[in-house]
Write the structure tokens for this entry.
Amino acid sequence: MRRGDSGLHVRTMPISLPIVGEREPAGPHVRPPQTPQKVYFVSLGCPKNQVDTEVMLGVVRAGGHTLVDDPELADTLVVNTCGFIDAAKEESIETILELARVKAGAAEAGIDPKRLVVAGCLSQRYPTELANEMPEVDHFLGSADMLGLQNVLGGAAQRMGVSPLDRRSWLYDHSTPRQTYGAGHTNYVKIGEGCDRPCGFCIIPKLRGPQRSRPVFDIVQEVHDLVGQGTREICLVAQDLTTYGTDLGERGLAPSNLEGLLDALGEISELRWIRLHYAYPTAVTDGLIERIATHPKVATYLDVPIQHVDTGVLKKMRRGYTERTVRELVERIRAQSAKIWLRTTMLVGHPGEDEAAYQRLRAFIAEGEIDHLGVFPWSREDGTTSAMHPERVDDALANARASELMELQAGIREQKFAAMRGELIEVLVDGISDESELLLDGRHEGQAPEIDGKVILLDGTAEPGDFVQARVMQTTAHDLIATLDLDRDPDDDD
């Protein structure tokens, strides 16, 4: 871990107003402030981190404080960090230092002092190191300490607020204040936290602790509340979605599984799409595939990180499966429905990935079974078994392999999109297009928010959250270009 410039492509997101989806403060979660504060946020990292940020936003609003979108106007500056890989850590550090400069500038100008709060995965992983190296930070909150922000804002918090992680560590529930931001018709719902997998390259268990699932009734209540506020699509997220519920009995709660949760969520009448992210390859059951293929409210989409197909590399990664496992999974999915959109991630440059192993992975991708792909070079992380392997791959070679695979997949996806020309598709409208205020942006069932491209609608009028029928007219490597089919009933399944 080092301080310094990075130029890295990890999302840095100041929270801009207005924010949608405000809930009433519930029960004992938040106390009224002694002095209302103006608070500025930056959220980094994945959708799971976004949910954590939204909880802290809820703490701010429910406590009577004010959110601002300019750090110069804030009394308290908050960074929710990501610490998963080197790129994310460096981006987090640079963001902290950037806000520290804002804090220092205010002090030099004689303005009321600002407080700087660092929350999330980086604090959880390096509490002592950060406290020693960054005296400009006033408070640290760990990945299970988001509600501690209320004590910070109330002036009753110690500098270090990072709790050890175990099976009973904090996990938000439907009554926790949460302030969603962005498109109100689409929201992420975290159904669990932590991971029990022993993957050799991954530090998630250190950052997030062991698997902890929310009860079915609690998730259903949250989604019901969100739908009441206008949400039409929910994206279910967890570190390991497919082991949802396996720990509930151990914690004295009613046992369940992902299939049971989907059945319960499917009873919510105004909910249209349920999207699944981060399924583990060996835990994708036939029952889950069947629901993705046939359930009217489960999107025909599955995000399942495969990481590699070479059996030797998978063994070094400690993934617990082989190339045959991966191929059988794809076969089972395609046997249920050829219309299920598959997203996966691959990790290249892992120790032991020789040229033959890489070519095996490349050949698998070239077969065209994957619809959406992310490829990342291996990042050495202290405390992982992968970091101890001596068979290192040169960084430049790993980066070149990642670029080659992404270029290969771009051609595959362009062909897949081109084959959709003339098709009639259902589109969830996201809003006015970034391309022109005369166009609309949306997504079809096979496109998750932000990562899978979009559908650009050339004509017609619709509101964010509307479902419309559109005919694909043109395609690019990333997007579909369509026109509204005004004569078709959006609820017609033909």
About this structure: The chain has three domains: 38-161, 186-418, 421-484. The chain is about 30% helix and 20% strand. The chain has a mean pLDDT of 89.
